[in-house]
Amino acid sequence: MLRSGITGAFAAAAAARPATVQAFSKGQRLRLLEASLPLSPSRFSCQARSFSLSTRASNTSQSSGKTTSKDAASTARDKSSSHKPGSSTQFKKQYPPVRPLPKPINFDKPAIPNPHETAAAHARFRRGSRQVGIAALIAIVLGAVAYQFQDSIHLDGSAAPIRGLQLPHDEMERQVREAQKAQANGTNFALLALTRSTTIAKAVALCVWDYRSTLGKKYASSAEEAEELRQCHLRSAHRILVALQTNGGLYVKLGQHISAVILLPVEWTSTLRPLQDQNTPTPLPELEAMFRTETGMSFDEAFSEIDPKPIGVASLAQVHRAVDRETGQALAIKMMHPDVERFSEVDMKTVTVLVKWVKRLLPEFSFEWLADEMNENMPLEMDFRHEAQNAKRAEDDFAGYRTTSVYIPKVKYVFKRVMAMEFIDGRRPDDLRYLAQHNIDRNRVSQELSRVFSQMLYLHGFFHADPHGGNVLIRPAQPGSRSRYNFEVVLLDHGLYFDIDPDLRANYARFWLSLLKRASPEVTAERRKYAKLIADIDDDLYPILESAITGRAGLEGSDPNNPNGVKNRNRAGSLLEMDGGTKLTDDEQEHIRKTVMQKEGLFVSIMELLRRLPRRMLMVLKLNDLTRSLDASLHTTHGPTRPFLIAARLCALTVYRDDLKQLKERRKSGQASLLTSFSLWKDYFRAWWSYVYFYRGLAMIEIASDVRARWKKIVQFSSNRVGKGGSAEKANSAAAGLHDQAERDQKEGEDRKRAQLALEKDLRH
Asked: How far is CA 369 from CA 346, 464, 550, 595, in A?
């Protein structure tokens, strides 16, 4: 009824005012109807469809000109239903607009329970962050300034002059300026570089000519040929010694490498051995010029006292004792020789060219491995910052031991060419008189040296590769020391360190353990197996490798073509059966020399072995040779096998750890079957038993060796104390090993004189 009433009203209005109603468009009529009638969506849709049909009918009747009253009423109703609120119309009643839908709520961000407190906390955090950032920036700036001037902050212009210098301050300053001027002079640099290259090239050329002449001659007998070759070795080694000492620097380091290779003829190694610690020092004014360039300070500004006489002169640097002006601490100042860095590049290139030249003229003499090693390691050794890093790592390796005799000096500051360290008052290991004065047992010193370097090699995998007598000090144990004895082993010069691969380390340890087993076909096969793994050699080079590693004439089964040993006696079956001490006896040295010189092609095989050995194994051989040399210089009484026992026990520990690691990997990767579990447990037991057999069993042999060493010292003391000519002083000297050391020094002096006479005789002819 409502709908019909409204429709009638619209019809009447249309009849009364047709022009006004027709003025509404179709859209207006539709919107008016939608706003006026509160219809449901479904009813509104029906009404909209009805409206559409009526509109089309109205349009059709208008276009034909036959409009009826019924059509007019329908048209008026449609137009009134589309009335838009706010438009000009006769209707008084206005309908409110449709309210817009509310915006959807976005729940991506979590609601903040306490927005005001949270905002305040954020503000406080931002303020605190700014304050911390400003403080950190200030600290960084101050730290950088302090780092740049850390060694000159305490300088005092009214400081007292240095005590100990022979030259007046003005004269020293003049020499410093002259040294700086000479260092920057390019003409002198080129001239000196040419002189250095010519010196070494001349020595090498004479050696090559001498060897070609000696090897090209025909001799009446093999003994005459061996003697001539020995004299050629002496002459050549002395020529190279003089040339290396003349040039200094890297050439001295090169000679040190050669002197430590036991595979080379003894004439070479003994002649070049003085290069390890007998070098020419650099004048102090030249060092001060370099010191000032590095640190920005003079000696007078940095130290209240400095000793002009160096306490040590090495191939690359020398060390002076000084007293820090600020703290009064005694320091050891290590400074690089100025010529070393100036000529390092040209020296390395010269050596490389000479080595290639020697190989071209004498293909059997290949020293390329030596040149490669020098080119790789010399730049690292000439940066003291690298040395300080090595020292820190070595100190960390020994920090985990509850007891250890190792002590590494603390570094105060370090630059590329200058390093200040804690001064250590100690002596070389071969200073037997110093050891006797402090009641230090030289046998214990030898044992600790073997233990220290074996720990580095087998347990740490990071070892000191240059442990000659000048780089090791012995001092009495200090308060708070972790040493189990009354002395400490101080390690110096950490520039040359090497890592060793865990697999190579484990295989090398297994090879050492096989050398301790009694000889048998199975043991011989085991030795050759691990020798191939560590050195990549065939059976023909195995005897040479065994002698190089053990430093002895060879064990049973090492050389089937030469079954007899020294003086045609049977060879020892293992290292535990060897006689004559850890050092080579005179008879054994003669046997090795004759074997190398008389056996056809053996010297060439030695060169081939050195060429094929992995670089790390070459450094391991050098470590073995130098540690044996340290033991020999102590003239111990503990017997031939003591250092071998220490190394073997650590080898057993290394092998046991490697076995456990491999078994653990097998257990993780294998199937969990009963048969597999039984095999693993059997291998676990085998590894454990091997460890107990070597590590614990060799400890009993060590005790017996210590008892034997003490008994020998008692015999030495008693034989020189009683009887004709006996005295307490003589007895103490003999028990301290001073008699044996004097005999060895005399023999080495005779060898040096013989080499010099041989060279002078050759020059006269």
From this structure: 19, 20, 22, 24
Query: Is residue 109 in some structural domain?
Result: no
Which residue type is seen at 129? S
Question: Cα–Cα distance between 34 and 86 in angstroms, integer?
Answer: 15
Phi, psi of 320 (to 5 degrees): -125, 145
**Same-domain status, 674 and 742:** no
Q: Per-residue pLDDT tens for 255-282?
A: 777 776 666 677 787 788 777 666 778 8
Q: Is 324 helix (H, G, I), strand (E, B) or coil?
A: strand
Mind listing the pLDDT tens digit for each residue in 292-316? 888 888 899 999 999 988 988 887 8
Range of the domain at 239: 169-381
Phi/psi region, residue 718 (left: phi>0; alpha: psi -120 to 50; beta: rest), is alpha
Residue 285 — pLDDT band, cuts 50, 70, 90?
confident
| Residue of higher predicted confidence among 259 and 423 | 423
**Strand 411-414 to 497-499 pairing:** unpaired
- Kindly report, residue by residue over 383-403, the tens digit of the pLDDT: 898 899 999 999 999 998 999
Please tell me the distance from the alpha carbon of residue 329 to that of residue 561, in angstroms, as a whole number: 63
Q: Cα separation of 197 and 353, whole Å?
A: 10
Residue 144 lies in a domain: no
Kindly state the tokens that stand for 81.
């239903």
Residue 46 has pLDDT above 80, yes or no: no
511, 534 contact by CB (below 8 A): yes
Non-local (6+) Cβ contacts of 503 within 8 A are none
Q: Which of 229, 203, 226 is nearest to 214 (CA)?
A: 229
CB burial class (10 A; 0-12, 13-18, 19+) of residue 590? Answer: middle
Q: Measured between alpha carbons, how far is 79 from 75 in angstroms, rounded to an integer?
A: 6
Around Cβ 354, how many Cβ atoms within 10 Å?
19
- If asked whether residues 418 and 351 sit together in one domain, one would say no
Domain shared by 376 and 416, yes or no: no
The span from the CA of 751 to the CA of 584, in Å, is 16
Mean pLDDT of 137-144: 72
Which of 227-241, 473-487, 515-529, 742-756 shows the lowest mean pLDDT across its residues?
742-756
pLDDT, position 424: 94
In this structure, the answer to whether residues 521 and 585 fall within a common structural domain is yes
Structure tokens given for 376: 């790789």
Tokens 């006026």 correspond to what residue? 36
Find the DSSP H helices in 37-86: 41-64, 69-81
Give the distance from CA 10 to its chain's centroid.
Answer: 103
Q: Can you tell me the distance from the alpha carbon of 519 to that of 522, in angstroms, rounded to the nearest whole number?
A: 8
Which structure tokens are listed for 4? 């019909």
Q: Cα separation of 624 and 618, whole Å?
A: 10
Percent of the residues in the chain that have a pLDDT greater than 90, as a whole number? 19
- Give the pLDDT mean for 474-493: 93
| CA–CA gap between residue 632 and residue 741 (Å, rounded) | 10
